[in-house]
Input
Amino acid sequence: MTTRPEGGYRAALHELRSAQKPSAGTPLYSRLVNRPLGRRIAALTYVWGWTPNGVTFVSAAFTFTAIAGIALLTPVWWSGIAISALLVIGYALDSADGQLARLRGGGSLQGEWLDHTVDAAKVLTIHLAIAIAVFRFFDLPTAWLLVPLVYLVIDSLLFFAMMERDLLLARAAGGSAPASTASTGVLRAILILPSDYGVFCLTFVLLGAPLVFFGVYTVMLACNIVFLAMALRKWYRQLGALTG
Output
């Protein structure tokens, strides 16, 4: 268990800088924006005496308020900006809860379960909200509703496959998460930007122009289908190598 830093916000921020997850395999937005922002929120909430689970609940409040807005609000320029801002803050808080847990000496099984459960709910509901918005507000043929439904399947499968892979790798390593072997290069981080949830959050600033937003959303779906196919192939081989 780590020693709790003294000296307030600056001391907490300094300790967090030396206790970051590896950047291997992390898209550029998460690496350069979301983690640093989450680090500052974690240091601040540490000074305020918050718990990691409390931060998770606040993150969920921001995220699901935005998701409700997608389904319920008529798309205009200000609603798109507001929804994007709420999602970005929710995502930063999602990063902050784990960093706060490390700062406080380590997280709990309950906290990890809660964090992943909220993430799963987010993946399931955000594309459903987009499907509702397309049906209610977008001037598109009904067949285009398949785009958010397919995106929902792709994101859910990616989330489950990644969590299960991590679980099996940790089991094979004797209960501890093994070091990542993914590339840390900037080029790879740029190429996988369409799979970055942070970039996805930013696309909602286009919601006031529904057809433009939906075009970008569809392109991101296509990129994520390719990314999922490549990731599944890589993870299958990675797990196969562990079993000989």
Notes: The chain has nine helices and no strands. The mean pLDDT is 87. The chain has one domain: 9-242. Residues 9-242 form a domain with the Four Helix Bundle (Hemerythrin (Met), subunit A) fold (CATH 1.20.120.1760).
